[in-house]
Amino acid sequence: MADLRVLVVDDEALIRAGFRVLLDASPGLTVVGEAADGTTAVRQCRALNPDVLLMDIRMPGMDGLEATRHVVGDPSLDARVLIVTTFGEDEHVFAALRAGASGFVLKDTPPEDLVAAIRVVASGESLLTPRVTTRLIAEFVRRAPVVVRSTGLTGLTEREREVLVQVAAGMSNAEIAEHFVVSLNTVKTHVSRLLMKLSARDRAQLVVLAYESGLVVPGS
Q1: Do 56 and 64 meet the contact criterion of CB atoms below 8 Å apart?
Q2: Which one-letter DSSP state was computed for residue 2?
Q3: CATH topology of domain 4-127
Q4: CA atoms of 50 and 32, how far apart (whole Å)
Q5: CATH of domain 148-212
Q6: Predicted confidence (pLDDT) at residue 148 exceeds the cutoff of 60
Q7: Domain coordinates of the chain in residue numbers?
Q8: Mean pLDDT over residues 109-118, rounded?
Q9: Residue 217 above 60 pLDDT?
Q10: Is 199 in contact with 151 (CB distance < 8 Å)?
């Protein structure tokens, strides 16, 4: 199996170098390039075809949010974006999820957790944890008016709605299966149907949609 290809995007050379050393030393991962700003990141992404972009938010010129929109919005690319952030950038994190990022890690994340996060995102899952992501989404949807997207939720079955609520709570497929006392494959089928019916790229977008549609009420 080929190594996962990672593009490291950060405006600090020392941080990029540290990530490169860590990731290149991790089995199954290869850093294929670096970028110090969003414009270069988008260009490198198109040239190098990475599987995952490890993306900083605050950079000169085009920032990580705009770069994420360019990468995710390009149908010729299949790269996933993992945002690197701090607790002080909550609002930016929510904007990144809306832009199509598949999740985020904190800058003080232990090395082994960062490596695991890259693998999770590359597999098509989203890095969503109740401890951080759900709190951020709930807070910033609370501040903004609820917007029901044109796709709506009318085409969902009652069980699909219930599963979507659990996804929005940051629960894994295994936890959802245990909650409803069903098989893991059944949950995977429900999640796949949710992604298809709601035209969502991944679980991160499902979480945002669950809050924006009003299905999940912040603080509930």
Answers
A1: yes
A2: P
A3: Rossmann fold (3.40.50)
A4: 7
A5: 1.10.10.10
A6: no
A7: 4-127, 148-212
A8: 90
A9: yes
A10: yes
